[in-house]
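[retry 2/3] Inositol 2-dehydrogenase: previous attempt timed out, resubmitting with same input.
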Amino acid sequence: MRLGLAGTGRIGTSHAETLKSFDEVSSVVVADVDAARAQAAAAKLGVEAAADIPSLFASSLDGLVIAAATDAHPELILKAVDAGIPVFCEKPVAADIPGTLAVIDKISGADVPVQIGFQRRFDAGYAAARAAVATGDLGWLHTLRATTLDPAPPPAEYVAHSGGLFRDCGVHDFDVVRFVSGREVVEVYAVGTNKGERFFVDAGDVDTAAATLTLDDGTLAVVSLTRYNGAGYDVRLEVLGSAGNVVVGLDDRAPLTSVEPGVQPLPGPAYPGFMERFRPAYVSELKTFLDVAAGRAPSPCGAADALEAFYIAEACEVSRRERRPVRVDEVRV
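[retry 2/3] Inositol 2-dehydrogenase: success.
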């Protein structure tokens, strides 16, 4: 297979390296709006570089991976689908709900697969939790507790264009709550606060937040988010049922310290960030994309799934601003 990759930043370069490692991939072509960055990445990885994005689309591709800036996602997705090229795109589909709906509307009649990158669905722990729920081993669920706790904030420039903590960060937790539970979120109540850098306030964002989600069967989910977890990168999910429970992310590198007598500390070190924590999941989702692009499997996470997670994030943002519970149906367009 000959695959293209648009966007050679940190995650794009990592994806290109992963794609190159697959036996089924004969060649990888990368491109970026910054041609020099694409050339540098290609030289480092030993792959091809297209002169620009139009040249990338003219490279006889069997599939396209999009890791460009968010505002480029809609155009690249649509261009790939119009060209009959199977596409994998990092979340989100677009920067807002109307943009996402516009993309979904335009690709709905096309017979070209689109896979959106929610890598936690391909993490072994989240997959095992989903299986435990599906088999009934946990009984009926009463609570899910999800955390995404970053060790340090991203740059001010990133925050200003990120869409906010719920849309940029919490959306992964919202997606896996749906994925693991098999249920839909019907109502949210969210709060947020700022105790760190001023640029969060300037962007209308928060650096720490919590949301209570009510699922369509009455199960409750609590999502905790922060940009300031000094102990290290901490992403976990507790799934609690009437007959048992499971925990995702509780391994030797979880940045947790017990103060109970006689309890030994976890050996660590903590994961420095999401790329290290979810490295196997990123590999697995791209491997799956090869099957999708080759027509051997349907897309495991389409644009409609991304939209549902985005609706939850949008409802949380409205709830935070207006200090009230918000039905997810309120933000549906």
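[retry 2/3] Inositol 2-dehydrogenase: The mean pLDDT is 97.
[retry 2/3] clearing retry counter.
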